[in-house]
Amino acid sequence: MRSVLLGTAAVLALGAGIVLLPAKPAPQQPLASHVVFQPGVAAHVPVGEIRPGGEIVLEGALRSTIDGAVLDAATRTDYALGVPTTRPGGYFEIERAGLRLVTSDPITHSVKLVASGGDASACEAAGLAGPCLVPRTKDLAREGMIAEGELARSLHGKIEAKVPRVAVAAPIPPAPLASYGLFGAAGLLLGAAGASVARKRRASPMGRVRAEADRARAATSRDPSLGELHRKIVDLVARAESLDATRLACEARARKIDRAALLGRRATLEKGGPEAADTLGWIDREIAEADRVDEDARLAIAGIERVIAALSVIALASREERGVRVRAEVDDPVEAVRVELERREEARAEVEDEVALRRQAP
Predict the structure, then answer these.
(1) Separation CA 120–CA 124 (nearest Å)
(2) pTM of the model
(3) What span, in angstroms and rounded, lies between the C-alpha atoms of 171 and 167?
């Protein structure tokens, strides 16, 4: 790992040095355009120039003043009784907008999407070519049983989208040094992109687990008496990986559930009379199973947080300075000073008593 880092640093340093050569680099377009979504301001934003597999990164979240719910690009987090519950269904349409979810972190509110090249019916309904970024304001308002305008007024915050632009071929520079300058700039950009990806991985649930596991391993490796705790770290990481696989599976399944359609079907059947009772019962079971999927995803996230806390406790409890005593039981230098001072006082008192006795003698 150290050799890889050194090699990367060397490449970046070389690139930086080449850029500084007296060559005039060819002009380049920005690699990404930044779009900030704010309720009531931003609308549908086309990203149709992105080819299938192209990435879109969205960061930030919106908070509702009605119920305190937090919406990022892909998830919704409710705070019933102060307990956060996260489920799929964020501010943007994803699957019907020619996009596919790659990663989503409800804690940092960072979402990565890729152009899927598939269904873009939501874009077509908005008069756009897919893929596109389409807010789900109508669906969200219907779920909350409020007007769309009331929903927009209740949301505060912003979501920033980083949308890559199509690269434009630059003219071939007359001097070879300019080409070297471009290579150096590319090296710097690749290094920055790699650092960004590494930061996002560290912020993900499993990234946090691995970081705490590294700290716990380092803390327990110095003391042979902590060998059993050191061995348990492997089991904790394996448990977190299993929970994370469950979380991802539940979130993927939940994205395929159209809750608005389920509730709409149920409302229609409620008006159908006694003959629709059996079908209504099955739809209720379907809604209950959909709720169970969300609950399983929430429990998986809670389990991962539990593992992270356990790893953190191992690291803190294994520190060498734990259990500092104000007064040492053996070879306490402060106690030694006190004893020595008492001895000096006793010796001085004896001398003074001896002098007093001599003065009283005839």
Answers:
(1) 6
(2) 0.39
(3) 13
